[in-house]
Amino acid sequence: MCSDRSAEAHDLSAVPLPPDTVGLLEGLTTTRAIRRYRDEPVPDEALRAILFAATRAPSGSNRQPFRFLVLTDGPNAQAAKKIIGAGARRIWGGKRTADQYEQGSGAVADSPKARMARTMQEFVDAFERVPVLILPCLVRYRDPMPSEGASVYPACQNLLVATRALGYGGVFTGFNFAVDAELRELLGVPDNVFIAGTITLGRPVGRQGPVRRRPMPELVYGERWDEPAPWAIDPPGTAFTSAGPPRSATRHEE
Ligand SMILES: Cc1cc2nc3c(=O)[nH]c(=O)nc-3n(C[C@H](O)[C@H](O)[C@H](O)COP(=O)(O)O)c2cc1C
């Protein structure tokens, strides 16, 4: 369990942000989903910097409808981790079966698929011990519409990249959606607020591998749909993967 945070907030008003550990472009191109954390708290100074970066994100008309519930080790934090942990275990249990994580290469202990399944299982099993749980929220001022997420998700990505910049790691998940009503009740979230996701943060355990994505020409078009832009060429050393979740031996997944 994480150690207690001091009751008296240390005065950060005269303290500048900490220096980056990586450059901006390097940070953007190397930020992975980190699901394994050391059992240590994230200091207020780092949280302040990470959340400052999040709150500098763009939003429609600069309305800044994003809000962040940052839960560390208070009683509500512990209760929220418990609620989301239970939801996460249900969701992962269903996905593990539906996406056949035990089949095909998943049965081979050191395959990427089996490793992913192990990481996910450890993540959901230890959810109550994540050092920081953040619920990014969107305050609605009109009826829900498809593009509204564009005013909250850029802030989430700022948050994750800033996390990486300071040597921490995090992951965005949708675990909250399974337990939305319980979270609202626990945390007093009003009806006009959309809880847009669940982000966990902490000091990473182990080394992270490279970011793997599809080759740029499959993702970046010029002039016409499906026509790769001629300059869309992956730089040397790029690692690739197909679109996930992992393919099973018997089924081509979405
Ligand atoms: C919209 C969205 C939903 C996601 N939902 C989950 C989730 O429910 N659980 C989880 O463990 N990771 C979730 N992720 C993290 C993705 O699995 C991860 O970003 C992706 O696999 C790439 O990982 P990598 O950067 O380590 O290669 C989500 C990411 C996004 C952007």
Which key terms come to mind for this protein?
two-stranded parallel ribbon; alpha+beta; binds flavin mononucleotide; 7 strands; disordered C terminus; single chain; globular; five-stranded antiparallel sheet; 2 domains; NADH Oxidase; 254 residues
In terms of DSSP E residues, the strand content is 5-15%
Per DSSP, the total helix count is 7
Overall pLDDT: 92
Q: If you consult CATH, what is the topology of the largest domain?
A: NADH Oxidase
- Reading off the top of the CATH hierarchy, the class of the largest domain is best stated as Alpha Beta
Which radius of gyration do the C-alpha atoms yield? 19 Å
CATH architecture tag of the largest domain: 3-Layer(aba) Sandwich
Largest sheet: 5 strands, antiparallel
Write the H/E string, N to C. Answer: HHEHHEHEHEEEHE
Task: Report the principal-axis shape.
Answer: globular
Helix content: 25-40%
Describe the protein in words.
With 254 residues, this protein is α+β, with helices and mostly antiparallel strands. The protein folds into two domains: 24-209, 3-Layer(aba) Sandwich (NADH Oxidase); 210-242, no CATH class. The protein contains seven helices and seven strands. The strands form two sheets. Strands 1, 2, 3, 4 and 5 form a five-stranded antiparallel sheet that branches. A two-stranded parallel ribbon has the order 6-7. It starts with 23 loop residues before the first helix and ends in a 14-residue tail after the last strand. The relative contact order is 0.18. Mean pLDDT is 92; it is low at 249-254. The structure holds flavin mononucleotide.
